[in-house]
Please model this.
Amino acid sequence: MPVTALKGVGVRNLERLKKVGVSTVQDVLFHLPLRYQDRTRITPMAVLQQGDQVVVEGVVESAEIRFGRRRSLLVLLTEGDASITLRFFYFSASQKAGLTPGVRLRCFGEVRKGPGSLEMVHPEYQRVNDAVEEQMEETLTPIYPTTEGLHQLSWRGMTEKALALLSVQPEALPDLLPVDLLNRYQLPELAAAVAYLHRPPPDASLEQLGEGGHPAQRRLAFEELLAHQLSLRELRRRQQQTPARPLHGNGNLRQQLLGALPFTLTGAQQRVAAEIGEDLKRDRPMMRLVQGDVGSGKTIVAALAATQALESEHQVALMAPTELLAEQHLRSFKGWMDSLGLEVAWLTGRHKGKTRRLILDSLAAGEKRFVVGTHALLQEDVAFQALGLVIIDEQHRFGVHQRMALREKSGVGGLVPHQLIMTATPIPRSLAMTAYADLDLSLIDELPPGRLPVSTVVIPDSRREEVIERVQAACREHRQAYWVCTLIEESEALQCQAAEDTAQQLSEALPDLRIALVHGRLKSAEKEAVMLGFQQGELDLLVSTTVIEVGVDVPNASLMIIENPERLGLAQLHQLRGRVGRGTKESHCVLMYHPPLSGSARERLGVMRDTRDGFVIARKDLELRGPGEVLGTRQTGEMQFRIADVVRDQQMLDDVRQAAELLLEHHENRVAPLMRRWIGQREQYINV
Ligand code: ADP
Ligand code: MG
Model:
């Protein structure tokens, strides 16, 4: 039912409503208040506290204009022995004239501490006469999120009408959850929940509503999460309908690779490698996400998967989110594949013209069987002869759409390649199963043996000299170090310039060290030369921007300085720090901040100092920044909810998954309407 079905909603409002995503009556009903005011009762003046938003009543004792820094009208209002000051900076002569001593006023506003007593600045007020005596609000007053030109009163009017309509025409918002589900999870009916949230009764708990913990709120969040869950399952179901190439392999390359490794796999690596191995043998596409903390050894697991595809005469594409990381993979995989007598192709946005043409031809003809690259692999003219496996590293940088684009490149026969996705952003299991309900999950929950924990210190940049000496001492002992510059400048050019300046200063301060610089603006070949030099121990100190954040692997580097870590999020800091502590030497990380620290920065740095567990850090990060940022899918809107909040509502995620099963089993007819109601316009992502 369009929103214009409500009386008084005209064309002019339509545009504005559209801005806040409202075009139907249902949208109005789901447009929930941000908070509430209590105008249902008069609060005795004697019990007022700073911060209260309340209605008070009293008698005007005096009203005078004060000429201070700002001219203001001060009205002293009393009730018995108690009093409060009303302060107006804007007022008219007639307004002042109306506020004569003895007049009785009812005011609504926020109580704050004034210079002498408690006061309200610009309260709403009215004279109390017999007519208003009895008029108090019957429900808490909703305050809606809004946009310019749409006032709270319009929202109240609209929701009032929508609720009235709902009470006579329940079909305007049918309850899509069957009664057995409501009972099982103790959820109120939809219409009742919606009515409650728009007009809570006077005894409703503002605190509970503020925290989103009221059953009415939980009911709506539950339904939304359920719809989301169902749509991801639907996505998965459709994927499973397309056939894929079974890749059995003969184990030859795999054995050779394992034999050439200087280490043995951890138990967790073996388990996950076996899970992947089984998936690849199926004639349905694997869609598996491997989560593992930084340094848990995801790359070799991916390489083993690759060998199985290669043994089965199929091609493999590995995609990384940054060029630097792709280069790093290129180096590791080249090392491994060389020993197996296989070539690795390389494709990034920098390959142009004839070079690019040659690479594309070799992939399309199946001459090159393994390619490593960046987003460039997604471009339309990239084709394969027989793509069997797609490996995506650091999944949180890619959205569902990009993940899906590679599927289309399967080559002949319309078969879909298997997909292996690796992420170093570990998130709590129930959240992972919600966010990635379209994927199977594997967890590498064990670090290779012999790793020593990275000890982390947090110090102010006034101790920079000391830190520089520390770098000197470490490098004298043939250790290597990273110096990471985090910069706030908007432009990449300025960032790189600042990193260059730092490198310059450090070179002057540490003349006997071999220092080099990497940042995003270096030519690919230059970057690669520097990284290779660092990896091979020809450099002591690597100064960089945060480009080295993901994936770079130099086990001999055991000291990392991060400048201005307060500017970064927890996940990013954890990734950066994960670059050290990869060898068998004890490693250190120095978080050198610029004082003063904000409260939340202090908290974040404290977490980094005290915690190494990627899961704990990720959970903290979720609390501090919310799921959109953490899961990195903000752009694609996958984890954007209207009402639910996966962090706040975490404890219901298991129930939601169970409810999805029940619904699919016993109430299939409710599934499509639920997805339509909540996913609606975002259909494209159901269809990818
Ligand atoms: P990440 O999971 O962060 O991508 P990598 O795959 O880069 O981690 O591995 C980190 C380092 O650990 C690499 O130097 C790799 O060779 C090494 N490594 C991986 N697995 C093992 C293992 N089982 N034993 C010892 N070292 C390992
Ligand atoms: Mg990695």
Remarks:
- The CA atoms of residues 242 and 340 lie 32 Å apart.
- The first strand starts at residue 35 and ends at 37.
- The pocket of adenosine-5'-diphosphate (ligand 1) is lined by residues 263, 265-266, 269, 292, 294-300, 424, 448, 551, 553, 555, 582 (CB under 6 Å).
- The first helix runs from residue 11 to 19.
